[in-house]
Amino acid sequence: MHKDRLILLLLLSVFVLLGADCQAPWEDDDVKERPLPDRALASSSLLRAYYNARTFPEEMRSIKIPENGSKTDDDDEWLSVEFAMGSATVTEVRVHWYIVPPAGKTMDDVELLCRVVAPDGTASGWKTVDTGDPAKFDAQVELDYLYEFDGMDSAGTWRAQIRDHVKDEDGRCLFRNASLHINKGESGTTAAAPDSDTIVIGAGNYGIIPEAAGERVPFDLGWIGIGRMLPNNFTITGNFLVQSIELIISIYVPEGLAPESDLVLMLVAPSGNWLAFAFPDSADLEVDVGGNSKLASYTIPGGSLPNGPILNVNGEPSAGTWSLYIVDTNKDDRTAILTTDQATMGGLNADGSPLQLTLTGVN
After folding, report:
1. Which of 92, 65, 45, 82 is nearest to 159 (CA)?
2. Contacts (Cβ under 8 Å, ≥6 apart) of 5
3. Measured between alpha carbons, how far is 162 from 168 in angstroms, rounded to an integer?
4. How far, in Å, are 3, 20, 23, 301 from residue 9 at the CA level?
5. Which domains does the chain have, with CATH numbers?
């Protein structure tokens, strides 16, 4: 009798274990449960982003950039991102990275290296990732390769590889997104007529700009998610390859809020490729509206430089839906308001400045 009872208890224990949500020590909750964004569509044969910025979830899965403690080409000692590209004769290659620093660090605390590998296996040398001024926001660091692949056919799978070559246990940078440009993403040379769209009141999302902040840095799309930003959509009908943008925007600003450091804008192309940027240091015009608030109107330009960094959306086909997202990364209950009102020399012009996006490019 005692033996039968023992066997029964053992069987019940097995059934309980089989039905329980058991986890092996090598299984990672972060890998198993957190989602990833969707892959982006190809913008063109010469331009492609890795993830579709419209699909970033809250607290996406952490993709960590390896530390390997050397500059040797050891296997599996870097993060490799692949892009399928079309055919053209290569004159230059550019990579944009969206990287988040280790917890409690800034990007100048890490030493990242990047290289590009062509479809035929030709590899560039490792280049230092210059993240610029750590005090200034930049969600798309650019590295250019202006001669390494000259004359090659670009058709096939390219790989952009990145690593932290100093194994100093300072934590791991997180990969959020990347894009690859062949020849600045452009195949045309003839200037096209600009095209624009305006979002009038009643047709867009005007009002309070939501507050949301990243865990490691104030703007981390992979942490806050696209759903916590204020969206607006522009429809562009002209068909050309984008070289520059211009955004007209007005906001009500309470005392103590600094648009140039607190607010972040992100423009997403029809393909899902992204361009994140900050407000300028000063507005075109400001008007005091009482209650310790002001109305500020901005014209925000963006374009490729002759010998400098290009827009991450340089070479994007213009036609389709472009989405603008705005977020306040300083969670202090001081909220800005997106408006159609305009600040002028004569004061406030009601509904005089709805959101407007203008794209300029080439055919």
Report:
1. 82
2. none
3. 17
4. 10, 16, 23, 73
5. 63-185 (2.60.120.260), 195-362 (2.60.120.260)
Q: Tokens representing 264?
A: 């972040």
Mean pLDDT by 10 residues, the chain (363 residues): 44 36 37 86 96 97 81 69 96 95 83 95 94 70 94 97 76 91 87 93 95 94 97 97 95 97 96 94 96 96 74 94 98 96 96 96 92
Check residue 14 and give its pLDDT. 35
Give just the sign of the alpha carbon dihedral 311, 299, 287, 290: negative
Q: Which tokens is 349 given?
A: 């012009």
Q: Is 228 helix (H, G, I), strand (E, B) or coil?
A: helix
DSSP-H helix ranges across the chain = 2-19, 29-33, 221-224, 259-262
> Which tokens go with 94?
């550019």
Strand partners, 162: 79, 114
State both tokens at 350. 């009601």
218, amino acid identity: P
Nearest Cα neighbor of 177 from 221, 219, 214 is 221
- According to the model, what pLDDT value does residue 305 have? 63
Backbone angles phi, psi at 258, to 5 degrees: -110, 100
Pairing of strands 207-208, 337-339: antiparallel
How far apart (Å, rounded) are the C-alpha atoms in residues 201 and 83?
A: 40
Phi-psi region of 108 (alpha: psi -120 to 50; beta: other; left: phi over 0): alpha
Token pair listed for 100: 């988040």
Residues 295 and 348: beta-carbon distance below 8 Å:
yes
Q: Find out whether 192 and 240 touch, Cβ atoms under 8 Å.
A: yes
Tell me the pTM.
0.88
